[in-house]
Design a protein that fits this description.
The protein is an alpha+beta fold and about 180 residues long. It contains 6 helices and 6 strands. The longest helix is centred in the N-terminal third of the chain and has 16 residues, at about 10-25.
Length: about 180
Amino acid sequence: MSNTPMAASPLTRAVLEIDEYASGLGWDQPARLFALVDTARLRAQEPSLAAQLGLQDEPVTTGLTPIEQDEVPTDKPLDEFLATIAWPDAVVGCALTVERLMLPPSAEAQVPQGLSGAKLTKWVADHPDRQEVRMTVGVLRDGTRDSALRLREKDAPTEVLTGAGLVPGLAEALSATFAE
């Protein structure tokens, strides 16, 4: 977490830690799902796991520890996959990092009528103003949200945009994994 501001909330720090981890893996990576657990509780209840994660020497904090889950399937739409998830009580939140192509708002008026699915994806991929972006979105059980966006063309820790409302659709889908 070398570039994570210490004054940030625990969720913001976790989202930025995941963004930094994903950045270290490079681009063109599959989506990655993380459980977020209370670090102090993890150390107290699962000391051997905390030791495996290198948390035994961390100062006591109110932080969150991201724990990467099994691979996100690529043969199923992301929203359908997320709808199958239920978290145990020990998980206080979750986060997902995913790469996508996006267009600036000015390009929305250029989208040809009637395109959907694969044709729309190809049109966006071929658009000269497209941007590759890595989105990391985290949510807590209590509804708190945060996100980090990193553009491939500005791939630097100082160029990461953060905010709670940056990727509302993905935040909603992640929040739904905690629905009773």
